[in-house]
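Field notebook, page 306. I keep forgetting to write these up properly, so this time I am using the form the group agreed on. The chain and the ligand, magnesium ion, are recorded exactly as supplied. Prediction of the bound pose follows.
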Amino acid sequence: MTTQKARQIWALGGGKGGIGKSMVVGGMGIHIAQLGKKVILADTDLGGANLHTCLGLPLPKVTLDDFIKRRVEKLEDVVCETNCDNLGLISGAQEFLAAANPKHAQKIRLLKKLQSLDIDYLILDLGSGTSFNILDFFLISDNGIIMMVPEPTSVENTYRFLKGAFYRRLRRVTIYREIRELIELALDQKNIRGIKTPRDLVEEIERMDKKLGRILSEEAFKFRPKLIINQVRMDKDIELGFSVKNICSQYLGIQLDYLGYIYYDDCVWQSVRKKKHPILEYPDSKASVGIKMVANNLLQNQQFRL
Ligand SMILES: Nc1ncnc2c1ncn2[C@@H]1O[C@H](COP(=O)(O)OP(=O)(O)OP(=O)(O)O)[C@@H](O)[C@H]1O
Ligand SMILES: [Mg+2]
């Protein structure tokens, strides 16, 4: 049997926990499913999975854990129905100790199966942090999205996440030991070569080997992560997205697309308490409007503009 590739994979992550990633993944999924597209949400937050709760569902009987541990053969068998037409859920692993750190072969098997699901959109909830598992899922996706809240710690985590993802991507495209070692070195902020940013790294490689430097800088240009700001309270918070975008381009050499922002909204926690998703419970609330805006920008492959 031939399997058709999922048309698009989106993956949402962020350096910081508890900032609204699962809530937004759920909201984007519901919105796109309501537009008539076939969507599956997958909770790849191995160990901290709670996307089902964001969708107002009880803990599903089968989870990714069952697939990783081969208790079920097909990934399709762990897709659960939700309260929305066209929207399925693959719940994350609960028995986290073993599964949170799947072996490389298990991860590859999972990635391949996720890529071959016959649907329009697969949206991954990556959870927080910058572990290799998270970065790998972020990098295999067609749209790697990073979420930030307007707080200094979250901004700092965003830069750390982007740098980590960038270095891991470059590491994957080079087979040269010297270059790989240089990338490892660059991960240490106080490295002896004085490489502080991805831009410094690419320049250093260009000095060592012009041709390879050019290949890597082209790779760097192709890396276009997306940014969403959640829990916005004032205009300055909205503008922060543009500042982060500019800093990424000028100092890090990373081209970031700013998708838009979502207001801090009491409707969110009110619906969370009722175990309903805000986009269904309060579709016209400021938060729901924001979620639809960022999802539509992604669908139309465009950025947010003032
Ligand atoms: N725009 C918002 N307005 C108000 N509250 C919000 C908003 N976004 C998120 N929250 C609050 O933050 C809480 C955490 O959201 P969520 O579980 O989606 O975060 P997360 O980033 O997925 O967390 P984790 O890193 O633990 O997976 C929600 O229960 C909700 O109360
Ligand atoms: Mg979450």
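OBSERVATIONS:
- The longest strand covers residues 121-128.
- The pocket of adenosine-5'-triphosphate (ligand 1) is lined by residues 17-23, 45, 48, 54, 127-128, 230-231, 262, 264-265, 268-269, 272, 287 (CB under 6 Å).
FOLLOW-UP: compare against the apo run.
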